[in-house]
Amino acid sequence: RKRQKGCRPKRSMSSFFPVKLKKLGYCGLPRWMIDKDFSTVDMIFVPVNVKNNHWSLVVVNTKTFVLKLYDSLVRIEEIAGYMELL
């Protein structure tokens, strides 16, 4: 797929990624996940299901090593466990 001029590469993760990571750790990640080269992307979008009734979005900036949480309802304490894993 051809990239538009000025657009930086991004990648989105499966909504199962945070659940698997929290439950199984890095060694439990699927092979397709481990083989990905994240050094070529600037941002990674990770959807997180909070308490099975609300979605949040964690954005990982791989260039600045900054995690941002986008959510209008959830307090940071409710998602802190997932943020620590990333």
UniProtKB/TrEMBL annotation:
Residues 1-86 form the Ubiquitin-like protease family profile domain. InterPro entries: Papain-like_cys_pep_sf, Peptidase_C48_C. Keywords: Hydrolase, Protease. One of its GO terms (molecular function) is cysteine-type peptidase activity. One of its GO terms (biological process) is proteolysis. The keyword Lipid metabolism does not apply. The keyword Ubl conjugation does not apply. Belongs to the peptidase C48 family. This is Ubiquitin-like protease family profile domain-containing protein.
